[in-house]
UniProtKB/TrEMBL annotation:
This is ABC transporter permease. The chain crosses the membrane at residues 9-30, 99-119, 140-161, 181-199, 235-261, 281-307. Keywords: Cell membrane, Membrane, Transmembrane, Transmembrane helix, Transport. The keyword Transcription regulation does not apply. The lineage of its organism: Bacteria, Pseudomonadati, Pseudomonadota, Alphaproteobacteria, Hyphomicrobiales. It is found in: Cell membrane.
């Protein structure tokens, strides 16, 4: 087990380094001078040169990369001249919106999808199973931004139960803050729940067809006992994979939803920084999001080892 964990950690570190190189290189080939775009077309050559020096754009490319990475390793993400603030403080302000939003959406998705997947797998071929799978297919097909607009129209405009957008901040109280995140979380969760429920159902059906399941039934165990104590744990492997991917998507891919609801999260910060060509903010936020995805995948690998004893024996 220890060998398995060390090997996965080495892969994580290598992946992080490769990702940082790719992100840095891609942002350097963007056409246009960031200093010129920040200052506008009427800026003088001296002011542009001064800003390039402040941004560190006047040093060789390799030195810029090393300066950026060495700063990130000690928690210094640089300074945003567009926002007039340290990038680290900008990220800290936005992550308290994006992270709770992703956690709430993932919780809703899991609470809905796992029971639906188990319920439909235990009633394969019935009208209930067919109806549930048809509903999940619709949930997969509907874009979450369109679903978000529909939720705003029904619950915020028509019934006035929740705010249509914005975030009051956690200082305003737990319930007002959660109310502002409820509709975005539902808009993100339901399409993901549709995917997860279908994966749960398929994994359970595949597991229930295995020889050891038939042996358990031949020993006289009830169908419910076989389902909960033998099939479910072995069916968790693909479910854990989808859960890890979904959390990574919910954390890093909320740009559209955050713009629909005017939420000051990381997705909106990246969108605004790309528009303003604020490379320091874009580089740092994207690397942090990539790192979070890689870390989540590492935790999923550890969950694999917990669910599958064969991986522990490999270690």
């Amino acid at each position: 087990m220890a060998y398995y964990i060390v090997r996965r950690l080495l892969i994580v570190l290598l992946t992080l380094w490769v990702a940082s190189v790719i992100i840095f290189a891609m942002l350097q080939v963007i056409p246009g001078d960031p200093a010129q775009l920040m200052l506008g077309i009427n800026a003088t050559d001296d002011s542009i040169a001064a800003l390039r020096s402040q941004l560190g754009l006047d040093v060789p490319l390799l030195q810029r990369y090393l300066n950026w990475m060495s700063g990130m390793m000690v928690g210094d993400f640089g300074y945003s001249y567009t926002y007039g603030a340290a990038v680290g403080s900008l990220i800290a302000e936005r992550v308290v919106v994006s992270l709770p939003l992703a956690l709430i959406a993932l919780t809703l998705s899991t609470v809905i999808a796992i029971p639906v997947g188990i319920f439909t797998a235990s009633r394969r071929g019935t009208a209930t199973d067919t109806t549930a799978m048809a509903i999940t297919q619709v949930g997969i097909a509907i874009p979450n931004f369109w679903f978000a607009i529909l939720l705003v129209y029904i619950f915020a405009i028509s019934f006035r139960l929740v705010p249509a957008g914005g975030f009051p901040g956690w200082d305003a109280g737990l319930w007002p803050a959660l109310k502002s995140l409820l509709l975005p979380a539902i808009a993100l969760a339901l399409p993901q729940a549709a995917i997860l429920s279908r994966v749960t159902r398929s994994a359970l059906l595949d597991t229930m067809a295995e020889d050891y399941i038939r042996t358990a039934r031949a020993k006289g165990l009830t169908a419910q006992h076989v389902l909960w104590h033998h099939a479910l744990r072995n069916a968790l492997i693909p479910v854990l994979t989808i859960l890890g991917l979904q959390f990574a998507f919910l954390l890093a891919g909320t740009i559209i939803i955050e713009n629909v609801f005017y939420l000051p999260g990381l997705g909106r910060l990246v969108f605004q920084s790309i528009q303003r060509l604020d490379l320091m903010v874009v580089q740092s936020v994207v690397v942090l999001l990539v790192a979070s995805v890689i870390l989540i995948n590492f935790l999923v690998d550890l969950a694999y080892a917990w669910a599958d004893p064969r991986l522990r024996r490999e270690g």
